[in-house]
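testing teh design pipeline on a random one, pls ignore if ur not involved
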């Protein structure tokens, strides 16, 4: 059996690698706006591992993820595995598609998928594994720079009522969009666009939303976009 070379401390290097790997996985989860309370469940579903085991990857004295889990995580979040391991400053792979020849269905001349379409594909995979949530595409610039146009947005559709201030998906005149919602005592409910080009709208009360034909679809729990 081969002996480690003098001065080499495998345990120390393993701890350093684990700390770096978990920190960079968290970095991608934060960039993708995955809610902190749901991150273990998302990573477990993406890697097909048990949540109890996944939680150890993010603990100081925990375990290293296995090779397949790192591969699946990198594939889902378009992460460079070299970046995850600390071998390069380039965060994302040059070609995010698992198959570089993948094309948009029905595209003429083998036209490649756009970045927005690739992100939406990833969002669909994640949304299938996030029970109780659905995914829409932000089709306007009203919430920029917080949520950019074409960003996939996850919505908790278990309630169709305003439940505390936050970001909500609403439907109005056949269009689904996203607004920051603030309940102002004595004034009413304010629908706010982060893009300052657009004015906020104040509705007298929650019942006023229905009277104006505005339907609450659910509360936004996360969105996915490149930096």
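output:
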């Amino acid at each position: 059996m081969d002996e480690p070379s003098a001065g080499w401390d495998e345990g120390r290097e393993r701890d350093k690698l684990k700390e770096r790997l978990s920190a960079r996985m968290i970095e991608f989860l934060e960039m993708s706006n995955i809610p902190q309370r749901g991150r273990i469940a998302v990573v477990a579903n993406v890697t097909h591992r048990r949540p109890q085991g996944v939680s150890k990857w993010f603990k100081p004295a925990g375990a290293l993820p296995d090779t397949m889990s790192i591969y699946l995580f990198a594939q889902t979040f378009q992460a460079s595995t070299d970046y995850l391991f600390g071998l390069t400053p380039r965060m994302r792979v040059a070609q995010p598609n698992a198959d570089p020849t993948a094309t948009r269905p029905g595209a003429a001349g083998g036209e490649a998928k756009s970045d927005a379409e690739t992100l939406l594909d990833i969002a669909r995979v994640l949304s299938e594994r996030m029970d109780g949530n659905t995914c829409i595409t932000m089709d306007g610039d009203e919430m920029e720079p917080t949520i950019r146009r074409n960003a996939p947005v996850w919505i908790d559709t278990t309630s169709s009522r305003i439940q505390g201030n936050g970001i909500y998906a609403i439907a109005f005149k056949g269009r689904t969009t996203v607004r920051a919602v603030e309940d102002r005592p004595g004034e009413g409910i304010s629908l706010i666009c982060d893009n300052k080009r657009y004015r906020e709208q104040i509705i007298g009360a929650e019942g006023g939303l229905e009277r104006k034909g505005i339907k609450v679809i659910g509360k936004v729990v996360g969105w996915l976009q490149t930096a």
